[in-house]
Amino acid sequence: MGTCGTGISSNDTYCEVYEEFFSMYNEGKEVDEITVSLRERFKETIQFAEDHTNFWFALAKAQWECKALRPEIFEKVKSIIDGEEDIRIWRELEADERDIRARNKVLNKFLNTISTEKESPKKRKKIRYKPAIFLKGDCIAFHLHSGNYGGALVLETFESKEAGYNLIVKTRINQETKPTINDFQSTEVLFHQITQFGITNEQEDAQWFFPDGYKKFAHLFEVIGRMEPLKQIDIKNGMIIAGGWDLLISQTEEQFENEINGVLPKKRIRLIDYIKESHYK
Fold it and tell me: Taking the CA of residue 66 as centre, how many other CA atoms within 13 Å lie in the half-sphere pointing to its CB?
């Protein structure tokens, strides 16, 4: 269920449904259209006994905030709360009785809130597009905490409705002087180890980075040139979503430290293996 607390919104399912609702709402879609879309997208959740109540709570709250709470959704939520269906689920999951009492209080307060029509609908937010920070092929130098320079290559730049984002692979550059294009041409890709189900694999250290939070760390990064990664990039294997831009630096240093301690990668890939060979032989 992913419950983090007794609050209505204190679980992953509620947050995901609620956020999806207002993402579509801010795009200009109508409440009924959004509702149909969410019911289809979350149909497995709706059928999942331990988590379905959170879907209905999130949908009801979102509709209520738009002053468009549909009677059938309200009745569904009222039935869940009055019939103590959600409380039964919490007991079956062996929740603490103190938490169950708190949850029951929260549910009744929630039902009381949505029983009265909201005075005015929530205003749609204007979507502000955030462009990707870098262009495909950018060679990025950055300052490591050790004082040395590290380096990374932008493999891809993708655009969505709300933002652009970069797929960036870290390299083995770790030197006192600022790297040049020649340094990028001669370096290798950084690998890291991932252990799942007791099996350890080595994967290229490539991650997605979004524009959010870049300004705080912008002074640490510099584009020193551009290469042309014209080959089709296979982004399905080994690529994970990154957090903040500081991870690009800290995870690079962490890998170098692991190697000092003897954890050396077996796989080796030159950075130019991503590049059109005729350019950088």
Answer: 24
* pTM over cut 0.70: no
One-letter amino acid for residue 120 of the chain: S
Phi-psi region of 260 (alpha: psi -120 to 50; beta: other; left: phi over 0): alpha
Tens digit of pLDDT for each residue in 214-261?
998 999 999 999 987 656 665 544 455 555 788 888 888 888 887 787
Distance from C-alpha of 272 to C-alpha of 262, rounded to nearest angstrom: 26
More confident residue, 3 or 138: 138
d(CA 26, CA 33): 13
3 state SS of 95: coil
C-alpha dist (Å) from residue 166 to 184, 224, 235, 252: 18, 17, 12, 17
Q: What is the DSSP letter of 233?
A: P
Q: Report the alpha-carbon distance of residue 190 to residue 278 in Å, rounded.
A: 23
Residues in contact with 62: Cβ distance below 8 Å, sequence separation at least 6, in sequence order: 17, 18, 21, 22, 25
Q: Do 183 and 169 touch, CB atoms closer than 8 A? A: no
Find the length of the chain: 281
DSSP class per residue in 104-146: HHHHHHHHHHHTS--SSPPPPPPP--B--SS-TTEEEEEE-TT
Tokens describing residue 270:
């030159």
Judge contact between 189 and 170, C-beta under 8 A: yes
Encode burial over 112-128: b for 16+ CB neighbours within 10 A, e otherwise.
Answer: eebeeeeeeeeeeeeee
